[in-house]
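Review form for a predicted model. The reviewer records the input and the model, then writes brief findings.
Reviewer: anonymous (R2)
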Amino acid sequence: MAFGDVKTANGLKELDKFLADHSYVEGYTPSKADLSVFDALGKAPAATYVHALRWYNHIASFNTKERSEWGGQALPQVAGGKPTAAAPAGGDDDDVDLFGSEDEEESAEAAKLKEERLAAYNAKKSKKPALIAKSSILLDVKPWDDETDMKEMEKNVRSIEMDGLLWGAAKLVPVGYGIHKLQICCVIEDDKVSVDLLTDTIQEFEDYVQSVDIAAFNKI
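Model under review:
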């Protein structure tokens, strides 16, 4: 997740590639890590960077007060003030040098070292839990009119509980004529939660909800 200088073509390419499968820089809700990259960009990326532009516009839709309340850690800074991901504590799989230096002479000692490292690597991999397929969804929940109690609407939406469903950040977005829609993020486990069932369940609060649209859908 090291993007380098996101003001360069290579940095933007890496960022766009990462955001193709992620809603945010870290985790499932907006955080200070997103702000680090957002501030480093300084302006919206070109339209050719589809995923980066979608993410940038989403972060830009939050006001200063909302951003100040986000949790998480800002990304460490490198030369030039460009954010990059911190090296994980304790190392990662990439730290395991299975084959030693390219210049290392082949010998019995070197072969033994490779075998030990390979055994340690396989042991570490075998202990990792199986990945669970998840998706991050941004929902637009629209009320009937400007007299709808939006706080009560959000309360009803968040009251929906399903195994594999986690509600995230939410905000009200103006749509015109004094009417606001509720924009709310959630993360689902794909094997446990049906998107159609979730939207249908939200629409059952018919005293408040006129319709539900999927504003963004990303695999995690």
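Findings: The two ends are 14 Å apart (CA to CA).
Further findings: The CA atoms of residues 134 and 189 lie 4 Å apart.
Recommendation: see findings above.
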